[in-house]
Amino acid sequence: MLGVLFLSTVQSRMLLAMALTSCPGSAHYIHSETVRCKPSIGVVSSLSTKTQLVKELFSSSWNSLRLTVRTTSLYSHGVGRRRGHQLVVGASPPTEHAVSTEPVTRKDLLDYLASGCKPKEKWRIGTEHEKFGFEIKTLRPMKYEQIAELLNGISERFDWEKIMEGDNIIGLKQGKQSISLEPGGQFELSGAPLETLHQTCAEVNSHLYQVKAVAEEMGLGFLGIGFQPKWRRKDIPVMPKGRYEIMRNYMPKVGSLGLDMMFRTCTVQVNLDFSSESDMIRKFRAGLALQPIATAIFANSPFTDGKPNGYLSMRSHIWTDTDNARTGMLPFVFDESFGFEQYVDYALNVPMYFVYRNKKYVNCMGMSFQDFMAGKLPCLPDVYPNLDDWENHLTTIFPEVRLKRYLEMRGADGGPWRRLCALPAFWVGILYDDISLQNVLELTADWTSEERQMLRNGVTKYGLKTPFRDGLLKHVAQEVVKLAKDGLERRGFKETGFLNEVTQVANAGVTPAEKLLELYHGKWGQSIDPVFEELLY
User: Fold this and answer.
1) Which site in 244, 331, 377, 503 is 20 to 30 Å from 160, CA atoms measured?
2) How far apart are the first and last CA of the chain?
3) Pair 354, 248: CB distance under 8 Å
4) How many CB atoms lie within 10 A of CB 504?
5) How do the residues of the chain divide into helix, strand and coil, expressed in percent and rounded to 5?
6) Per-residue confidence at 233, pLDDT binned at 50, 70, 90?
């Protein structure tokens, strides 16, 4: 079946060993040493870190399988303390360092973005994915108490550090990997920055094995789909995280679908590096232009409240009426003047959600970060931001491609295991290869802002059958997938196999959502329950 993953322990150890040794040079070390970036606006920044990838393959039991990414600095936030043999991270994200004694300047904000610049040999791949947990017997969403037991079990069995908010466990951390909870209990893995797609897919495998090992004993399963297919919003539990309480109260004021975004969606995304401001611009534009194609290829959310909802990607549609001040296709990225400075201007104009102080979230909904920089926030008078506040603010902006110190490709629905590996393969093949990236920029150079927006809206309903100019979007998608494959071949890491799923979808012009709808109207007898088996991890 589509999403079920059954490999023997021996196979899994072989897969991990192969993946971790697949790239030339030292597979044990990932360096991100001092990088200086001099973009056109004159920003000069440096970062210095050093991480070590430790491969650990143990005996044949479930308990023994893990991929651990160790870092020389385990805590960038908060203070760690031990309970028994388990390390507990006392402060939860977002970060909160010492409060600034001097106001953050505009140049500081620019420097922060530019500090992401790094030479090509330092580029990495970071994959994030979310999934719905449910009770096997009832199919109902996991309650927080079950999630807490699951997190504690993973921590104790596989040596993850616990992340706490007050007395509540809200996540786990292991080196550069983290597990976090979305508002409705969606379980998210934020992967480490890795060199190859083999390592990325091995990391996903390791995570899914660990989660499955503990969850099965509790009678829990996980579903790989983009939108909660059966349960109503009122049936979804609310996670005990302060920022989500603030967002939950604000969302209905700025859009009709924001609460559905929070509680009923799942995505898979990839985070990729850039070498300079000009490289960032090229990748940002290519990512935005092609995001509707990624949305179509990975469309996997055709059900709501137990029946078809009229969309192939309901998750993507939801973002069109969540909060238009912080979402969308960002047409200004295609302006000749675009660069780090223009993105800072955009982010400064996005209304704030919160400020994190003294391990608490202060409600600053709708207020201005520019006022914050002047010490004029009504919620925190005479308090000035630090770079952690800026970093946290950037995480509350949700366009189709998001700029931080890397670029996030955010247009795809969550899905079964093999598509979790396919999404980064698609974007790495395009954005990490100069020839494929240039070909994409030339292919999309004359696409207008109106056409890009039309595609972004159209694919949510019509997928690869969305009309475009003198044909269908699937014809463009086939060309783009070929460019991605060519790019992966030139990387030389034997990664093209990860594109097999994407290639099949593009060539057939039939999205995963359409296949689910065919099953629903046929084999499943218009019952939604079989999807929980079909897309079970």
Assistant:
1) 244
2) 10
3) no
4) 13
5) 45, 20, 35
6) very high
Q: Is the pLDDT of residue 27 over 60?
A: no
Tokens (6 digits) for 358:
């003294």
Cis link prior to 308 (omega < 30° from 0)?
A: no
Nearest Cα neighbor of 358 from 170, 96, 145 is: 96
Q: Which of 45-59, 80-94, 299-313 has the lowest mean pLDDT?
A: 45-59
Amino acid at 415: G
Q: Which amino acid is at 261?
A: M
Contact indicator for 79, 361 with CB cutoff of 8 Å: no
Q: Per-residue pLDDT for 529 more than 80?
A: yes
> What distance in Å separates the CA atoms of residue 223 and residue 530, rounded to the nearest whole number?
11
500-508 and 473-491 helices cross at what angle (nearest 10)? 160
144-183 in b/e form (b: 16+ CB < 10 A) is bebbbbbbbbbbeebebbbbbbeebbbbbbbbbbbbbbbb
Pull the structure tokens for residue 27.
């597979």
Query: Taking a C-beta distance cutoff of 8 angstroms, is the pair 141, 184 a contact?
Result: yes
What pLDDT score does 101 carry?
56
- Residue 284: pLDDT over 70: yes
CB of 97 within 8 A of CB of 240? no
Q: What is the 3-state secondary structure (H, E, C) of 406-464?
A: CEEEEEEECCCHHHHHHHHHHHHHHHCCHHHHHHHHHHHCCCCHHHHHHHHHHHHHHHH
**Which residue type occupies 123?**
W
Is the backbone of residue 39 left (phi > 0), alpha (psi -120 to 50) or beta?
Answer: beta
| CA separation for the pair 346, 360 (Å, rounded) | 27
Angle 415-419-423 (CA atoms, 0-180°, nearest 5)?
A: 110
Question: Judging by DSSP bridges, how do beta strands 161-165 and 86-89 pair with one another?
Answer: parallel
The Cα 267–Cα 260 span in angstroms is 13
Output b/e per residue, 460-475; b: 16+ Cβ within 10 A: bbbbbbbebeeebbbe
How many residues appear in the chain?
A: 537
